[in-house]
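Job type: complex structure
Entries:
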Amino acid sequence: MSNPIVATLESGGTKMVAALARGPGEILFRESIPTTSPDETIARLIHFYQNAFSQTVQPEVLAIGTFGPAELDLQSPQYGFITSTPKPYWSQTDLVGPFKKALGLPVVFETDVAAALVGEAKWGAARGMEHVAYFTVGTGIGGSLMMGGRLIHGVGHSEMGHMRLARHPDDHFEGACPFHRDCLEGLASGTAMKKRWNVPAQELPADHPGWRIEAHYLAQACCNVLMVAPPERIILGGGVNHQPALLALVRDELRKLLNGYLNYDQLSGQLESYLVSPELGDDAGILGCVALGQQYLSLS
Amino acid sequence: MSNPIVATLESGGTKMVAALARGPGEILFRESIPTTSPDETIARLIHFYQNAFSQTVQPEVLAIGTFGPAELDLQSPQYGFITSTPKPYWSQTDLVGPFKKALGLPVVFETDVAAALVGEAKWGAARGMEHVAYFTVGTGIGGSLMMGGRLIHGVGHSEMGHMRLARHPDDHFEGACPFHRDCLEGLASGTAMKKRWNVPAQELPADHPGWRIEAHYLAQACCNVLMVAPPERIILGGGVNHQPALLALVRDELRKLLNGYLNYDQLSGQLESYLVSPELGDDAGILGCVALGQQYLSLS
């Protein structure tokens, strides 16, 4: 029996990717539209879904993975909203209500990074694992945590990009986060790298000392997640991690930081199987939402 | 109907406290014995339980909150063991098997700090809350996290004492952790304070600058837990937190660290209701185990 079809929305600050899909290799319809005003953007998305639904089996759920911050607490009157984003027009925008009303479907609402994590845990780099952490290092830095097969949210979703870190001794960059001088995002996001070195991260040569500094920060973030709630595997995604030399440096720094203190089997060797790259590539956002939607359907 | 009776074991490196109890004010039997060799200690504890059982209703569960590290993974052949502790004689000791066999009871096995957390969430400082973090700052530093009413363990239990932190600029102490120079435990445990100031923490005057440095580290640890998985409330327990001036300093440092980035209702004001002291006092260990045992019975 094939997996149920899911309507998906990868909701980003620059573009929205809507799709109907069943899993890897089974993306039936897909459309990417620019993120303009909420009214215009949502109307275009609803039009896409209605049109797609008329051409195939109607899905039973819409799963959204969104940029944040987002209100995920079902008890909150703001549930389903993008909350205090600096993105023009989108602060306090209801992203669930309009789709629910127009499409008559239940909506699963998570952060984009949580969706990516769930996709990787179903079909990608953490297949079959229950305890997984995922960092996405791009313009900003997001993180998500799954423990015992469940996404971990407390009074809100993870904000791993704003963990406080210790400075690399050679790093005198002032930090790129307007709230915190020395947080992970302020020191290690693509934005921080570009400001520090005056070139985009992707143009920094593989042997540039900036990569060792970057690894120092990413390893600290991994170390701290490990000490709070130890995952079986940590996935490092996002544009900055496209530098092939970086992953080995982060493993090396993390091994030094842990210094043999924890002796889980998972942490043996050079951490090759502990700290890994995502596997789902460009379809990660869609597939993450498919996995979220299918999880919802299997539980309901 | 009264709560079911639970056999409890607060397993510490210095002493073991065994009890039979139903809840606050209902501790029926209690005995404290020194932690010597595993054989001797466990034999004395079994004797206490058998004797107590003969005088009252036989409990249906034994709940243990232990010093660590401990193997909590039910799938592991080492489940129920104290693992690689530096404590003489106790490394690789089965703490569940002997009780199960001698008493014929199911055994719930958690860390001491997880037990304390569950007790505070049932009867103490986080009554009725689902998302709670607990730090105990004593000779070492332990931490535990509950999210959605469940204790969070991944491939192992939390080791929050070994999060990496940024140095306070005025702190040139070399650190007290043999594994990590700059981890929370190495910089902020009672052991670290005593080594840094040459007096035990409890003898440091309330206006000593050491408390501001201590608060700097504890606030960073709270900040990082908050960014990984935001609790509704954080409880700071343990001997070092007996200094009444400390809690306000930690709140102050945490407020500065967050700098308004998160706007949960819980984080409003001076964080008086966010960062709190435990309430269960000397009975916290016993009551935590009672809560764990009753949770087990209600689920089974």
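Summary: The first helix of chain A runs from residue 38 to 53. Residues 125-277 of chain A form a domain with the Nucleotidyltransferase; domain 5 fold (CATH 3.30.420.40).
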